[in-house]
Design brief:
The complex is a heterodimer of chains A (241) and B (157). By secondary structure, chain A is mostly helical. Chain A has one domain: Cytochrome c oxidase, subunit III, four-helix bundle (Four Helix Bundle (Hemerythrin (Met), subunit A), Up-down Bundle), CATH 1.20.120. In chain A, 66% of the residues lie in helices and 6% in strands. Chain A has a two-stranded antiparallel sheet. In chain A, helix 4 packs antiparallel against helix 8. Chain A is elongated, with a radius of gyration of 23 Å. The relative contact order of chain A is 0.15. Chain B is elongated. Classes of the chains: A mainly alpha (241), B mainly alpha (157).
Chain lengths: 241, 157
């Protein structure tokens, strides 16, 4: 896997080789990922700012995300643990696809990319499920005061779940940041699945076998690992802290 | 030879490796995976134990979680994204600007967050909303508080 090829310095100054001994496509995938990482870094810092500034108690994720499919007990953090496991697992299958590509082993690339796509779809589905339960809310709900124009006074009303204007679980900004950051990450996962699928079809067709290398698999692999990387941070800042 | 020659051995082909190398490479990747899984399970156990304990939400638990996260991120970037195997110059090009900028962003958001979190540093409009909500909590559901704050707001403008 080592990229070291000995060239003497005279030859290196002649040009005709890529900087960093990397291909054009991979360098620019890295640069794109840096800019995308800055976007996510900015969003998470904004979340930190709002949370640090807030003078009311911030909702605790252990009390918000307690549902688990087919289980009626409250299992705090179990579901998000499963989601994290699925995404890390699909990252492993992706890196194994890249490794199979380095050996020009088409069958291996097909198998591992297939599992990566399955993992990605499972993750997107899990996120949809979690959003559904966050929006629906608990059976208890919470009270809010709304202005009643005809009565000319504030009246109490029970509401359930969370959306962009009210949040059963506590501070409104918690819901807004949750929707924005996990939504933005989910969009990345979804586009990653689509890109993986396109590359998967090309592998099946034998495009890269003819080309002699599976570099495209490596490039989508970089993007897919980046998605996993972002989730590691979202998981910590939204669910653990 | 043309001026724009491209006969340098293709970088893609340099990435090829043999069956033997593949075997050790895969073993390393699976080891990285098991370590990351262990870290995640440890974090989840601590996270679900936390509520109701005295140490929940303390600075130390936050430092622990964040450093474990950075450790996991390092595993992903170095092994899964193969940054470990790139030239050292490229490593620095990717990591150093990002780390500097994010450190600045964290500093500025905590610094400004501390300042604007204080009541006395907030614009008057915020104080009005807080007062209105306090009135509501105290049980004055009538329009009086509302009108008063509307008046005050008009005065303020």
């Amino acid at each position: 896997m080592s990229h070291s090829v000995e060239i003497d310095s005279k030859e290196a100054w002649d040009g005709g080789q890529s900087p960093f001994r990397l291909s054009y496509g991979k360098i620019f995938m890295w640069f794109f990922l840096i800019s995308d990482a800055l976007t996510f870094g900015g969003l998470l810092c904004a979340y930190g700012f709002a949370r640090h500034k807030a003078d009311v108690i911030w909702p605790k994720a252990e009390n918000v995300f307690t549902h688990f499919p087919f289980v009626h007990q409250h299992l705090p953090l179990a579901y998000v643990g499963l989601m994290t496991f699925i995404l890390i697992m699909s990252s492993v299958t992706m890196v194994l696809a890249v490794e199979a590509g380095h050996r020009n082993y088409k069958r291996g690339v097909i198998i591992w990319m297939f599992w990566t796509i399955i993992g990605g779809l499972m993750f997107v589905g899990s996120q949809a499920w979690e959003w559904y339960h966050f929006i629906i809310g608990t059976s208890e709900g919470a009270l809010r005061h709304i202005w009643h124009p005809e009565l000319g006074k504030y009246v109490e009303e029970t509401f359930y779940g969370a959306n962009m204007t009210y949040n059963e679980y506590g501070v409104q900004q918690f819901a807004n940041f949750f929707f924005f950051i996990t939504g933005f990450h989910g969009t990345h996962v979804f586009s990653g699945v689509v890109i993986n699928f396109v590359i998967f079809l090309n592998v099946l067709k034998g495009t890269y076998e003819k080309r002699g290398h599976y570099e495209m698999v490596e490039k989508v692999g970089l993007y897919w690992h980046f998605v996993d990387l972002v989730w590691v941070f979202v998981f910590t800042f939204f669910y653990l802290l | 030879m043309s001026e724009f020659h491209d006969d340098y051995p293709q970088y893609e082909l340099m990435a090829h490796h043999s069956e033997e190398e593949g075997k050790t490479g895969r073993r390393t990747l699976w080891n990285v995976f098991w370590i990351m899984l262990a870290i995640t399970i440890f974090e989840l156990i601590i996270g679900s134990m936390a509520p109701g304990h005295g140490w929940s939400g303390t600075l130390w638990i936050k430092v622990l979680f964040i450093s474990l996260t950075v450790l996991k991120a390092a595993f992903i970037v170095l092994w899964f994204m193969h940054l470990k195997h790139e030239t050292s110059f490229f490593k620095y090009v990717v990591l150093i600007p990002y780390i500097i900028f994010i450190c600045y962003l964290i500093f500025i958001s905590l610094n400004e967050g501390t300042y604007s979190g204080k009541i006395e540093n907030r614009p008057n409009f915020d104080n009005l909303i807080i007062k209105q909500q306090e009135d509501l909590k105290a049980g004055h559901h009538g329009g009086a508080a509302h009108e008063k704050s509307a008046e005050a707001e008009a005065e303020h403008h």
